[in-house]
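Issue: copy button drops trailing tokens. Both records pasted manually instead:
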Amino acid sequence: MDGGSALRFGPGLSERRKAHMAHKPLMALASVMLLFSFVTSTSFVTPAEAARCGNNAAGFEKWKRAFAREAKANGIRQRGINALMKTRYASGTIRADRSQHSFKLSLNQFMKKRGAATIASQGKRLKRSNAKLFAAIERKYGVPPGPLLAIWGMETGFGRYMGKQNVLSAIATLAYDCRRSAFFTEHLYAALQLIDRGQLSAGQRGAMHGEVGHTQFLPKNILIYAVDGDGNGRADLNSKADALASTANFLRGHGWRPGAGYQPGQPNYRAIQGWNAAGVYQQTIAIVGRQIDGG
């Protein structure tokens, strides 16, 4: 993965950790409010100039030019605009987006296809070999190892398959594509904001839908939930510690309650539902997580 994807919080984190943590809720709120202003403001661009979605590559370049005008008017700086203009229509991403048939399988079929038994077995070993890391994450975020390992295994095979697609091209293509344009437009604005800040590389590689790192974060979630899990002063989702801590932070942000159960019908299952919309995926995380945690 591209090392330029590291999310840099600046030097000397150890000296300024207390101040940083005290201001972190305000920083996250500011990022969310800024992103909200990006995706809701249309006053700068007339309807004739507005970027219009499409269903094939033919209109992508025209859409990019229109979207770049909107993005610039809404506060994206030249670094982000330049990166956007270098993107290419990602045909592979569109094919992948149209071919997500596994979510239509039964739970047993889905678990077999995704290798749930292997994930549980390997997850138990990784829980033992990374006991200190998982203990620190649980102390801070209240999330036990099981669901984190289940997500890690499901998303990238514990970091073995993090993807080779250009993230920005994938996100831009999906923002242009009419099927889920509004959803991915938010992530495109987030990606451009991260690029402007130097926190995401324009050349970052990831999964087919533009997800990044060990647990596959989309750009908006990077902006809101990414944290430094290994204490080196930056949040880099290609680091397992940072990715796992960020995943725990995501779950906490979606209502995770320390000590409560996470099976269907229990309080923390709602946080797992926030991770992925597919019911079979949610159930698999819960089941595999329980197997890893020994429940």
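Record 2 (pasted manually too):
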Amino acid sequence: MKKFMTFLIIFTSIIFISFSYLFLTKPTNMPFIGHFFDKVFYGSLYYLSKPDSSYIYKKHEGLDLKVHVFVPDNPKTDSSLLLFHGGGWAFGSSYSLFKICKDLSDNGITCFSAEYRLSLKHSSKVQDSMSDARDVYNWISENSEKLNINKEKIVVGGGSSGGHLAASLAMIPDDSGSTVDNISALVFFNPAINTTFFDNGYELPENIGERRKKFWLYLKRLFDGKSVELSPSNWIKEDLPPSIIFHGKNDRTIPLPIIEEFTKHMKEKGNEIKLLTWEGKGHQFYRWDKESYSEVINELLSFLKEQTFNF
């Protein structure tokens, strides 16, 4: 009985200390459950597939933004892949892409998973995240020799809002009117490639849940009335990098017709783009379905081999 009471006291103390830490470190705008998920779930992902190294690519108002690097033991190419995680520009973690990066590095490819500012953590807006995406790309390019990669052969990709960030580098001009013109290829996982509906009079369905409705309205505010201007779908032009899209046919967050329309317009401009769809699969299906994940990785490797990777 004494041992049990000792164990109970220790266990209770650990739980109390842990939750006190979570409450004290919770960002102002972040719901507690979101902070718990971020620290506990995403935090555990770091140790399941640890990167080989991590670098601070940007300092902003006391915040250190990092890019995590997965280096292959037996490199097969000097090309590389930079990935941005999803989460509606509001939450999420670069750790969520660690498994993909680890599997790619096991296949001889250097892979980067980048952090960027998120609204619930850093009170940022979409354009802040876009700025971070450009800064991490520039940092990788400027440090290509140290990283043992070819700065002319960087592929960029991402999932959901991370796909928007990847596309923005190649498609949406920055304040100086320029885009990144030497991206080798683009990789999209259920990308937020068309954001115009936030400001073009789109009305949410009447049967939408209250929580989802509030979230969509919250996301709209992150664009500061510029969701049309900041939509990659409005910047389709000729000579964009070869692209591939992985998408679930049952995606309710980003419905397939939006992706099909984007693909059609890309092809009309003469761009090389491949859309792969999965029957009955929803948003970010590749993260939760082992069979689909293997299929996505194999298709991704095939696409990379067809492009600049040459291995």
